[in-house]
Amino acid sequence: MKPAGDDWLAMLRRTADAVEAALAGFDRWRDGGDRADQYALDQVADAAALGVLDAAGVGVLSEESGLREGAGGETVIVDPVDGSTNASRRLPHYCVSLCVVDGSAPVAGLVRHLVTGEEFTAVAGEGAQCDGAAIRPSKRTTGERAVVGVSGRPGPQLQAWQVRVLGSAALDLCAVACGRLDAYVDLNADHGVWDYAAGILICAEAGAWIGEARDRQLFHLDHSRRLGPMAASSADLAAVLGHGEPQRRALGDS
Question: Are residues 13 and 69 in the same domain?
Fold first, then answer.
């Protein structure tokens, strides 16, 4: 029998706890890692996450350490620190992002802000929460007063009242899910699945519109693939921003 959603969330919380503990006394924020696009903090956080997930016997796809097979069919998609450039510069906007998938179908997700401790969670078919309380997106349907989070440099064609470039896709998507932002757009279509998997599930379960810049399926286990996640408070606002593919395709359903 497969674990229930609450069981998955318990494991994800243990993983987030381990990452938080590993960074609690960390003092090498500016140090680089083994790759040019990596910080030492990424590696420390990844090792902490893997310590929990490997012991649980689950498959893992991590930004930092790639894909490793588990004993069952489920895989945990891991971004040990989403917003690590923010973290390296001590900008207090970064998180751990974790999402369980069964094949290409999301099962459960957790995003924990590593400065404030605020935690967003979702289980497929059961809604989304922030610190245990149900969340919903805003009811914005036009760009007239819409505040939109972006990755990349927006041009005048983006029909939004204001934009925010905050540096963490996972937290930006959660902000859409709970109505703090009205939409989120990756203008460069350049995110790995670990950046957005948990956030997209949380948005979908909260009732937000979700999609991809070129209408491609968002959930996958290809470490090299880059896509353009999007979320909006409504399908109408998504259309204003130039998109409108149904949610089911983005979530991997046929």
Answer: yes
Q: 0.85 cut: is pTM over it?
A: yes
In a domain? residue 140? no
Looking at residue 152, the DSSP 8-state letter turns out to be S
Q: Is 68 helix (H, G, I), strand (E, B) or coil?
A: strand
Q: Which amino acid is at 77?
A: I
Q: Note the residue count of the chain.
A: 254
Q: Which residues pair with 234 in a beta bridge?
A: none
What is the domain extent for residue 167?
147-250
Please state the three-class secondary structure of 12-54 as a single string.
HHHHHHHHHHHHHCCCCCCCECCCCCCEHHHHHHHHHHHHHHH
Structure tokens at 90: 């001590």
Q: Quick check: 140 and 234 in contact, CB under 8 A? A: yes
CB contact at 8 A, 198 and 80: no
Alpha helices in 70-218 (DSSP H): 84-88, 169-177, 193-206
Query: Across the chain, how many H-helices and E-strands are there?
Result: 7, 13
CA-nearest of 74, 120, 75, 98 to 18 is 98
Radius of gyration, alpha carbons of the chain: 17
Half-sphere CA count of 238, side-chain side, radius 13 A: 22
User: Tens digits of per-residue pLDDT, 154-206?
Assistant: 776 787 878 898 999 999 999 999 999 999 999 888 999 999 999 999 999 99
> 42-79 pLDDT, tens per residue?
999 999 999 999 999 999 999 999 999 988 889 999 99
Same domain for 46 and 11:
yes
Which stretch of DSSP H or E encloses residue 235? helix 235-240
